[in-house]
Amino acid sequence: MTAQTPSDLRLHAIIDPYCGWCYAAAPLLDIAQSMPHVELTLHGGGMLTGTNVVHISPQFRAYVMQHDQRIAKITGQPFGDAYYNGLLHDSEAVLNSMQPTTAMLAAQALGGYGLDMLHREQKALYVEGQHISKEHVLTQLAQDIGLNAQQFTAAYQQLAGNETQDHIEQSRALLFKVGGQGFPTLALETPDADWAVVDLGSFLGRPQEWKKHLQTLLHEQGHDIIELDETSPAQTACPIDGCALPKTTN
To answer: What SUPFAM superfamilies does the record tag this protein with (predicted)?
Structure first.
């Protein structure tokens, strides 16, 4: 009798480019994507869309700065002066998740670079203070990760509007289906089409424990345990209409 080939571990990350805790969890997603037999799919949840689009104001700045500063302290993820003293003081800045989500989808369509684009957007926002809702900024970010500007623009324009809105609606439907409470939500799709939410918050700052957890999940599906190299430390959730500190964090 022929042995059945083990299934890949299928993880679904429901995220948003403007979600601070998604930025904090970025190293964990990197580890997951780098592991053999792990399939990571990104789903943009559209946190700041529709009536939740944000126009920078003194009230918003005061609200997010206290949370971002604590996120930085807890996770070690950097927040730059250009963000704190630049973007957050720009009264004309608009934070809209649609455009960076479209860019992430376009990068994914151009060879699977969705996670790279998300990380570049996060760095551009939180470290460099860039306006990641502007298409020309996103085009430059796409070039930064090695994509051709013309190809990116074509993919972006094809996916903008209804395609991105449909993606966001499907992502939110998945969020509710798996019982997620906000962003990021990481869900495991089992071989028998069941779903289980993975508690990312338990592994922040514990990359080796996160690797071991993923290895255990792989082993349960019939894969051999693989020794992996050390990586930088990982650094739990934004409600679906905006960021707040996770209740599990002290």
So the answer is: Thioredoxin-like
Beta-bridged to residue 187, according to DSSP, are 12, 197
Phi-psi region of 188 (alpha: psi -120 to 50; beta: other; left: phi over 0): beta
- The pLDDT tens digits for 80-130 are 999 999 999 999 999 999 999 999 999 999 999 999 999 999 999 999 999
Amino acid at 174: L
Asked if 79 and 72 count as a contact pair (C-beta separation under 8 A), the reply is: yes
User: In terms of C-beta density within 10 A (0-12 exposed, 13-18 middle, 19 or more buried), how is residue 128 classed?
Assistant: middle
| Cα 119 to Cα 59, 115, 122, 132, 201, distances in angstroms | 27, 6, 5, 12, 19
Query: 47, 214 in Cβ contact below 8 A?
Result: no
Q: Which CATH number fits domain 9-47+97-121+135-239: 3.30.450.40, 3.90.1230.10, 3.40.30.10, 3.90.1150.10?
A: 3.40.30.10
For the stretch 197-232, pLDDT in tens is 999 988 887 788 999 999 999 988 765 544 444 443
